[in-house]
Write a sequence for this structure.
């Protein structure tokens, strides 16, 4: 896999190396989108990146969440966005040898998944130093977070190494849940979408999907559901 029209000078404007890890810089979305769709996908694949931490995405969460220190980030990956916002960033490290399988079947399937990444020359996620290795179910209990944010999380019905999104949202601690994803990979692909939710389209959301215009932020709020808690 190679870049088509991305010069070394352009790359240094987009990414930085920290502790031998290549991480995306927080930039205006236009800086990534002007590369073109193919280069955007190739670059994000090479970085093991599913959502680019754009200035616009940062500003969206900074504006819409009052207390950033109470936010729990799930599927944080490189942790760049969460670090900037002061979130508790977590991930289960499923694309690394630090993943903690819950059973023997999951252990075997995890080894196969890593082998497939190497076979297809797909870079695994570069987990940030600020990202805590913890299962999402344990994380929502441990951090007692009123707001949880998932970056490109898929449901357990799609990927056995991830989580039941509905269970995470319906735990006693979480009042608001945001999922950053797209209309093809995520929308209505989990039972959580059967609950009342908001589909938010913002300028400046950059995702790995071939059609970046499908990128959306999905939001659930318990107080909107008339649930007796």
């Amino acid at each position: 896999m190679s870049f088509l029209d991305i010069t070394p000078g352009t790359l240094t404007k987009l990414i930085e190396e920290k502790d031998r890890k290549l991480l995306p810089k927080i930039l205006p979305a236009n800086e990534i989108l002007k590369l073109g769709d193919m280069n955007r996908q190739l670059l994000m694949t090479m970085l093991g990146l599913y959502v680019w931490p754009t200035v616009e995405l940062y500003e969206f969460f900074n504006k819409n969440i009052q207390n950033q220190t109470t936010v729990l980030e799930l599927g944080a990956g490189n942790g760049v966005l969460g670090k900037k916002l002061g979130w508790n960033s977590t991930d289960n490290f499923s694309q690394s040898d630090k993943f903690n399988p819950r059973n023997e079947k999951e252990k075997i399937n995890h080894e196969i998944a890593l082998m497939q990444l190497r076979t297809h020359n797909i870079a695994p996620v570069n987990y940030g130093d600020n990202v805590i290795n913890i299962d999402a179910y344990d994380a929502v209990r441990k951090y007692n977070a009123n707001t949880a944010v998932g970056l490109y999380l898929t449901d357990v019905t799609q990927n056995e190494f991830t989580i039941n999104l509905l269970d995470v949202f319906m735990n006693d601690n979480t009042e608001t849940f945001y999922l950053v994803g797209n209309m093809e990979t995520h929308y209505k692909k989990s039972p959580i979408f059967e609950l009342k939710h908001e589909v938010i389209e913002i300028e400046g959301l950059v995702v790995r999907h071939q059609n970046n215009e499908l990128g959306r932020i999905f939001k659930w709020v318990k107080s909107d559901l008339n649930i007796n808690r």
